[in-house]
């Protein structure tokens, strides 16, 4: 293959990190024009739309990538099937919109959901062209596509928010981002749909998709459960604060976890006959993700009490404790997250589905039990659940490939220690500094913590990168 692991991951991560950094810069501006209730209503509207978006792809793109031979008729059949599914999902969402608004007693959810209903159709039309780009190893082109789409969305939300559009600025951002990405995928991909006839049997793809859909719906349900529970129990404004904390917490997943998992899946699938080699690649990806994710989240948690009001305005001050309490759990989840694509690469989707059912039920129960006690209780419940469930999660992964749990925990130990020290230093210093000084201190402490971690753990980090490069050269 002409492109190495580092080039592919680097291009995807560069685009996503650029967009993530742009979002960080955009949020302080948008947060001054929108209220917590606006963010809460958007979170509730997306709470139902995101499920339809998952169904619009159904994992069939991943299934096409796994096939050793590219069959144009097969790809064309999947495209037209997904186009029909996307159109049907759009109509279903329009019909569900008034029910969703009545459920949460928020009248403006009706037009929000009805407008956002176009997203699953756009996602369905982009799925097969995007899968062809992944199969062709055109990750730099994918990065360009997503960067342009992201920038178009950012431009729209900035202008709309400044013009007083309120929550509709967030809606416009999502629609423009999806439409731009779909148009560019159609233009840049080597896939071209033929006439909708002569369909080939898709039974094996549908079996793969059924397990993948079930798992994706469960993981999304796990993520959306706090949103819906908080929205129902506490209302839109507290949910808006939680949603803002989530926006910062998901930046590492979007900018780092997603690109690494995307590239790792393609390469793991190519080595699916050797579970031991796949397990080694999983361990290496955990070590790299732990290094990249744990320390930044810890640093922001330590400085958050001063930084969040400084960046977003004083009315968002309550975001800081929510972020700090949830950050450790989210960091662990991201560091170990490539187990998901490992299940897919080894065609153990049914096993992944069973694990996802268990995890979603238990996590939702934990959140529901904590919700009556407020946002901070929910954030703490997320971290406590992650700490308690990760050994079980890794045990599930071990059924697919020979993974040593102790090795995974050791991979996270050094970043956790460095992050803990960085958090303590900033937590002590932040109360004595103003916003600008705290921001400068945060950047300095992050650079110092990473540098120390590289010096002390360089052998393990070098071994992890060597394993990844060796596996993907």
From TrEMBL:
Q: Name one GO cellular component term.
A: plasma membrane
Alphabetized, the UniProt keywords read: Cell membrane, Membrane, Transmembrane, Transmembrane helix
Say yes or no: keyword Acetylation present: no
Q: Which residues cross the membrane?
A: 44-65, 77-103, 109-128, 148-171, 225-245, 288-312, 318-343, 364-387, 407-429, 436-456
Report how it sits in the membrane: Multi-pass membrane protein
Regarding protein family, the annotation reads: Belongs to the polysaccharide synthase family.
Protein name in UniProt: Teichuronic acid biosynthesis protein TuaB
Which gene carries the instructions for this protein?
tuaB
């Amino acid at each position: 293959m002409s492109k190495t692991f580092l080039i592919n991951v680097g291009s995807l991560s560069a685009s996503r990190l650029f967009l993530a950094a742009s979002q960080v810069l955009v949020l302080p501006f948008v947060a001054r024009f929108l209220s917590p209730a606006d963010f809460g209503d958007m979170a509730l509207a997306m709470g139902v739309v995101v499920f339809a978006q998952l169904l619009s792809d159904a994992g069939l793109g991943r299934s096409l990538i796994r096939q050793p031979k590219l069959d144009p008729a097969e790809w064309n059949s999947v495209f037209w099937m997904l186009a029909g599914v996307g159109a049907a999902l759009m109509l279903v969402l329009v019909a569900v919109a008034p029910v969703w608004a009545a459920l949460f007693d928020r009248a403006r959810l009706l037009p929000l959901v009805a407008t956002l209903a176009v997203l699953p159709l756009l996602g369905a039309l982009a799925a097969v062209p995007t899968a062809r780009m992944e199969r062709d190893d055109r990750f730099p082109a994918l990065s360009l596509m997503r960067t342009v789409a992201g920038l178009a969305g950012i431009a729209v939300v900035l202008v709309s928010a400044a013009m007083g559009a309120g929550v509709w600025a967030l809606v416009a951002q999502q629609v423009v981002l999806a439409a731009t990405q779909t148009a560019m995928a159609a233009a840049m991909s080597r896939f071209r749909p033929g006439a909708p006839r002569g369909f080939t049997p898709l039974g094996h793809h549908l079996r793969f998709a059924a397990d993948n859909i079930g798992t994706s719906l469960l993981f999304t349900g796990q993520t959306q459960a706090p949103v819906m529970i908080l929205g129902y129990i506490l209302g839109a404004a507290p949910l808006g604060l939680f949603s803002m904390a989530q926006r910062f917490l998901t930046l590492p997943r979007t900018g780092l976890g997603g690109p690494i998992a995307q590239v790792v899946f393609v390469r793991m699938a190519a080595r699916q006959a050797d579970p031991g080699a796949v397990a080694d690649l999983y361990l290496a990806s955990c070590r790299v993700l732990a290094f990249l994710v744990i320390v930044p989240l810890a640093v922001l948690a330590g400085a958050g009490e001063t930084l969040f009001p400084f960046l977003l305005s004083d009315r968002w001050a309550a975001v800081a404790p929510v972020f700090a309490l949830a950050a450790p759990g989210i960091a662990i989840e991201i560091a170990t997250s490539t187990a998901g694509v490992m299940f897919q690469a080894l065609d153990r989707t049914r096993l992944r589905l069973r694990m996802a059912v268990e995890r979603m039920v238990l996590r939702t129960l934990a959140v529901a039990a904590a919700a009556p006690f407020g946002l901070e209780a929910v954030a703490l419940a997320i971290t406590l659940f992650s700490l308690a469930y990760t050994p079980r999660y890794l045990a599930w992964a071990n059924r697919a490939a020979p993974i040593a749990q102790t090795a995974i925990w050791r991979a996270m130990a050094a970043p956790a220690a460095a992050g803990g020290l960085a958090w303590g230093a900033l937590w002590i210093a932040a109360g004595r500094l103003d916003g600008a000084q705290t921001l400068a201190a945060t950047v300095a402490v992050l650079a110092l913590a990473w540098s120390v971690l590289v010096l002390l753990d360089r052998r393990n980090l070098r071994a992890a990168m060597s394993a990844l490069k060796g596996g993907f050269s």
